[in-house]
Amino acid sequence: MTRRSRFGWGVVLAVVLGVLACSKGEKGAESPDRVLARVGKEKITEADMREAIDAMPKHEQAQYQTVMGRKRLLDMLVDRLLLVAAAEDKGMDQTPDVTSRMEEMRRSLLTAAYRDYMVEQLPKPTEEDLKAYYDGHHEEFTVLPRVNASWIKCATKAKAEAARQRVVGKGEHFGTVAREVSIDECSKKDNGLLGYFNPAGYVRCIGNRPEFSQRVFELEAEDVSEVFPWDNGWAIVKVHEKTTERQEPFSKARDRIAARLRPQLSDSLLQAELQLLRQRIGVEMLVDAAAELADKSAEDLMKMATEGSSPIDKIEIYKVLLQKYPHHERADEAQFMIGFVLSEELHDYDTARKEYQKVLDNYPDSDVRDSVLYMMQNMGRNEAPEFQEAQPAPQTGR
Known about the structure:
alpha+beta; 8 strands; four-stranded antiparallel β-sheet; extended; Serine Threonine Protein Phosphatase 5, Tetratricopeptide repeat; Chitinase A, domain 3
């Protein structure tokens, strides 16, 4: 077994051991071929160390940048090779379970690699595209005003005025007074700190209370409010910092816009590529689902589709029903259900609209026409259809 394949099998064990966390690249000019450790006949090089680091989450990078951190990581790589060697000595790499799982992993990696390749072929957004998005979405890059504030809440107006006098008149630290006299258990241990909030946002220890935020935003930085009534008590607020509404500069928003406009592999493009691959490589389908459903009645198919758990399967069965029994009394219902599954379960509204339209075109006298029109007008609104139940006729007196 090659060294590369041995490291590949080590990845499987490393997942169990939780040792694949690391940062991207090492600082310095170490040679990638520098040998850091030997395990039997195997070597662990600087390149192996960097490869392991590349696989780690970003938030764990820092702990492996120090001398001792690199030592811990090297110990983990050594342990991994030891377990790989022990597994190979036992012939575990040849067991059906392991070989099938390794083959599945290989296929998954290749599938992901080819998808990435397809994405790389897609046109990238230009600088003009990024700037156009920024100019057309000013509200998205508007930074709301915010304050950083603290408060003191007291049971009576007199106590709140006394607290304000200590802060404003005597110059005592607001946090000290808050810890001593505030009755708000949520904030008093933190010097009365409410933290940052904007005019319409959530306020720590207060909640979503626009009237509170409005009062605070009338103050400027370092201001202490007058005493005011609040929730069966009296309070004062101090603003530590205040910023006004501003526009985030394009230079700061650029990378976020680029990530948003990054090319995506659409389903239609993937299906087109798969169709080309079928023609080039050759595919022989030995299972014909339609043939297996050939002896099913329209009612059988309707029941199978209705009780199915997979939206895709439901649609395919409805299509078989329509192909076999285009004039059946429930054909219009089957066509309606194709649109319904697309819109309500798959949220593919464009395709659903086309399928709904087929009901109107092919079944002009259908009883489901009103339902079709309702769905075409309301799909995507996240509102459940309201059906008014028939009311019993009023009883007349004798």
